[in-house]
Amino acid sequence: MPAKVEIYSKWGCGYCVRAKALLDRKGIAYDEYDVTMGGDRLAEMRDRAPFARTVPQIFIGDRGIGGSDELAQLDRSGALDDMLSDTENPD
């Protein structure tokens, strides 16, 4: 079972669009949380990534990986594919 991917984003954010496009190209399903208007999801994002002040904030499993640039770097290095395979719960 692949690791769960979550992305916190805002409307009109080019970096968010870029990160989601990378995930879409790779066929990776993700849950997107829009924090444009603040609210509970923004508070949740800040709890999960206390020092993050920008979007997107991307989580693979429970691990925060950062934003679009970090996601792209993980993909270029091949580490993204490793992170996406859920080795903790092999079926």
UniProtKB/TrEMBL annotation:
One record GO biological process: cell redox homeostasis
Name used for this protein in its record: Glutaredoxin
Keyword annotations: Cytoplasm, Electron transport, Redox-active center, Transport
A matching Pfam family: Glutaredoxin
GO molecular function annotation: glutathione disulfide oxidoreductase activity
Residue ranges of domain GST N-terminal in the record: 3-91
One GO cellular component, as annotated: cytoplasm
Cited function: Has a glutathione-disulfide oxidoreductase activity in the presence of NADPH and glutathione reductase. Reduces low molecular weight disulfides and proteins.
Sequence similarity: Belongs to the glutaredoxin family.
Lineage of the organism: Bacteria, Pseudomonadati, Pseudomonadota, Alphaproteobacteria, Sphingomonadales
Top-rank taxon: Bacteria
CDD domains found in the cross-reference section: GRX_GRXb_1_3_like (cd03418)
Keyword hit for Transport: yes
